[in-house]
Amino acid sequence: MYIAMNRFQINDGQETAFEDIWRNQNSSLKQVPGFREFHLLKGPVDKATKATLYASHTIWESHDAFVDWTKSQNFRDAHKNAGTNKGIYAGHPVFEGFEAVLDE
User: Fold this and answer.
1) For the domain that residue 80 is a member of, what is the CATH number?
2) Does 104 reside within a domain?
3) Count of the separate structural domains present in the chain
């Protein structure tokens, strides 16, 4: 199993707009070979920057399945409007990938 996460810092007051972007996107992840689950997670507000932490969290059968998706037209279509929502983000997303070493 492989978990892929992007962490986002969202400017104060832009949380609903950010969540709506995810709610309204035309995702076809369920048709992608090796895809298992997606979650959009909302974390705490950073007191210094007043930005809210979010993470997109996907679970894949394997690292290879995730990499294959990143090279696909499906991936390009899903990310074609990335970066067009100025004022929402307090910085660039930060990617983190994890290979499962224990499953229970």
Assistant:
1) 3.30.70.100
2) no
3) 1
Cα angle: 89, vertex 6, 49; to 5 degrees: 40
d(CA 83, CA 92): 9
Q: Does any domain span residue 50?
A: yes
Among 84, 69, 77, smallest CA distance to 38 is for 69
3-state class of 4 per DSSP?
strand
Q: Is 67 exposed, middle or buried (0-12, 13-18, 19+ CB in 10 A)?
A: middle
Q: What is the pLDDT of residues 54-100, one digit of tens each?
A: 999 999 999 999 999 999 988 888 777 776 777 899 999 999 999 99
H helices present in the chain, as ranges:
15-24, 63-70, 73-78
User: Residue 7 is encoded by which pair of tokens?
Assistant: 């962490």
Domain hosting residue 51, numbered range: 2-99
- Confidence (pTM): 0.88
Element (H, E) at 55: strand 52-60
Instruction: Kindly report the backbone phi and psi dihedral angles of residue 16, in degrees, each rounded to the nearest multiple of 5, phi listed first.
Output: -65, -45
